[in-house]
Model the fold of this input.
Amino acid sequence: MMKRLAIHITLFLPLIFLLVQLFIIEVNDPVKYIYTISGIVSTVILFFSITISLIKKRVNLLKYRRAIGLWGFFYALVHMINFVVFDAQFDIYFILEETFDKPFIYLGMIAFFILLFMAATSTRKLFRKYSKYHASVYLALLLITIHFVMAQKTIDIDMFCYIAVILVIGYYKLLQIIVKNSKVYTS
Ligand code: HEM
Done:
């Protein structure tokens, strides 16, 4: 119970941080700032959600994976709302033009709809039926990685660090899948 509460509080903190920066500190370019914070926080949470099964022997957070995944979706939703409400100001032509003109926007859109589908089918009842489609999180993460690399105007050392972390997680995930499949095959 305490652990669940601690997880919720931790994942709620970036939102508080964002609101403080926007309303108290008043950053220069709020729209860009919301994109950066919500995009990075969502990406980190979602990558963390797929590493939970890798670290389960050391720290078992499997019980909280759904809650963590939903927080990842929540920040993706903030990112999407920022696009529709503050960036596009509900201008449907702007939304369509940006979406079809800029490949990084439609890759982000596809990723967002995959996450929306997963969030909507994460209830116990629906998860039983749709769990096999939840592997599509890997496709979403691939698209998100391409999306955020393409969104950068300059390539700096931080980005290489992000990519290195993503490759390490991807490598261990792939090993895990190969070992799991070979066990199914031999038993
Ligand atoms: C509805 C679909 C999406 C749209 C329209 C969108 C739009 C954008 C835009 C315009 C930027 C550039 C911001 C700037 O620096 O000016 C951006 C950056 C970014 N987006 Fe998205 N995005 C979408 C989906 C996603 C999703 C689903 C994720 C992750 C879960 C994500 C993660 C990121 C990240 C990490 C950045 C880089 C932030 C930075 O370094 O400043 N985006 N997005």
Q: What stands out?
A: Residues 2-186 form a domain with the Four Helix Bundle (Hemerythrin (Met), subunit A) fold (CATH 1.20.120). The two ends are 37 Å apart (CA to CA).
